[in-house]
Amino acid sequence: MLAACTAASADVLSWDIRKNDRLEITRTATVKFLINDRLNRVYQERNIIDLTCHERKAASSAVKGLFSVYARARAKDVFNLRDQYPSEFEIDRQGRFTVPKQYFMPNVRNLPVFPEKDVGKGDTWTEPAELVLDTFSTPFKLTFPVEYRLMEIIKKDGTESAVIGYSFTIDYDLSGGKYPADFPVKILGKDEGRITWDVRNGRPLNMKEKYRIIFFFASGKKEPDAREFQMIINTEMKTYRPVTREEKEKAKRELKKEVPDGIDVDTESRGLVMRLGDVLFDFDSAGLRRDSREKLDRVSEIIRSRYPDREIIVEGHTDNVGGASYNIRLSRDRAESVAAYLKKKAGTDKLSYRGLGADDPIAENGTKEGRQKNRRVEIIIKLE
To answer: Which class is domain 7-240?
Structure first.
């Protein structure tokens, strides 16, 4: 183990996302959901947030973001991609967000915010943060103070990292009749965590937190109904440089040489796409055929050796024969089978699946050949 030394001097902490840089924030939470103090279910949830700076101003960075929401039930192997929300906003040097009203994301804002002065080990400060709730009939914004403490500055291997402890409480009384009927009458919450900050580059490295929030709803009885979420959240951040068109085309050519026969390789806005036909499965089945596993073994080797840190999304697609609900279910189940197999072989957890049914054809469904092309699974290696 390498020894770390703690700096006694003070540092200026700030945000600094450079133009064209993409900051990927992966937040993974183990969630316990309780109803009136009784455990209802346990599941995992993940947010992957991509923030790309499109304009760097004197005192802020203007970013475009895509917020992807994933869930994994206790018995499942891989995350299911549920929703995606685009956003565009600014982050100033201290960490304050300016978000246009039409965007719900980011729902957690202004965390962390830094003082406009040097801070040293043991220094404390307080800044307001915001939480936007969009689970009711209208969005609702909570504002609360966050207390920070610089625990230490660590210098190791040419890097300088600040370890920052923080905590906040939420205590909102919404009783009184001025809110919509579906709103809770009271919200209580508490969050305690640590942030590791890259001092020289002005961006987060990782974050660990213990979060709890309770919503109390009117029940017509003496005691309100309580809905409680208890979460342990681990967050990892990584910065990627921009990928040029030439680099994507080069990666496409190299990938074509490595994939087995029967797999097409293409590029799109998110990155590289490996397209596999429905020969992976028997008719009306999501179980992988024995001969298809050899192809997926090779795909797993490529991901493990060439793209171990990239997000992988597996999408299932069908033709338009059959009902919409049937096609969605079949495409989702097939994508999940491929994703679960890849996860075991490729050794990555940053992998998810979703089924799109017949909603995204690549050929005409009016011909047998076209329908065959549309029945496919796509493995997307995200590059931007």
So the answer is: mainly beta
Residue 150 in contact with residue 164, Cβ under 8 Å? Answer: yes
Q: What is the pLDDT of residues 331-349, one digit of tens each?
A: 999 999 999 999 999 988 8
Mean pLDDT of successive 10-residue stretches along the chain, which has 384 residues: 38 90 96 96 95 93 96 89 95 96 94 93 96 92 97 88 97 88 95 96 95 93 91 96 91 92 88 85 81 89 93 93 91 93 90 93 90 91 88
Q: Quote the percentage of the chain above a pLDDT of 90.
A: 73
Domain positions in the chain are 7-240, 245-382
Asked if 9 and 199 count as a contact pair (C-beta separation under 8 A), the reply is no
Q: Where are the beta strands (DSSP E) in the chain?
A: 5-6, 22-35, 38-56, 60-73, 79-92, 97-98, 108-109, 124-133, 140-156, 159-173, 186-198, 203-217, 225-240, 263-268, 271-277, 312-317, 351-355, 376-382
Class of domain 245-382: alpha beta
Could you report the per-residue pLDDT of 184-211, keeping only the tens digit for each? 999 999 999 999 999 999 999 999 999 9
The amino acid at residue 243 is V
For 41-87, the DSSP string reads EEEEEEEEEEEEEEEE-SSEEEEEEEEEEEEEETT-SSEEEEEEEEE
DSSP 381: E
Instruction: Report helix, strand or coil for 127.
Output: strand
Q: Which of 98, 97, 95 is nearest to 116 (CA)?
A: 95
Pair type for strands 351-355 and 79-92: parallel
pTM of the model as a whole: 0.88
Determine the pLDDT at residue 9.
Answer: 53
Q: What is the DSSP string of 222-256?
A: SS-EEEEEEEEEEEEEEEE----HHHHHHHHHHHH
Nearest to 32 by CA among 232, 185, 203: 232
Task: Quote the CA–CA distance of 187 and 205 in Å, as a whole number.
Answer: 30
Tokens of 61: 């960075």
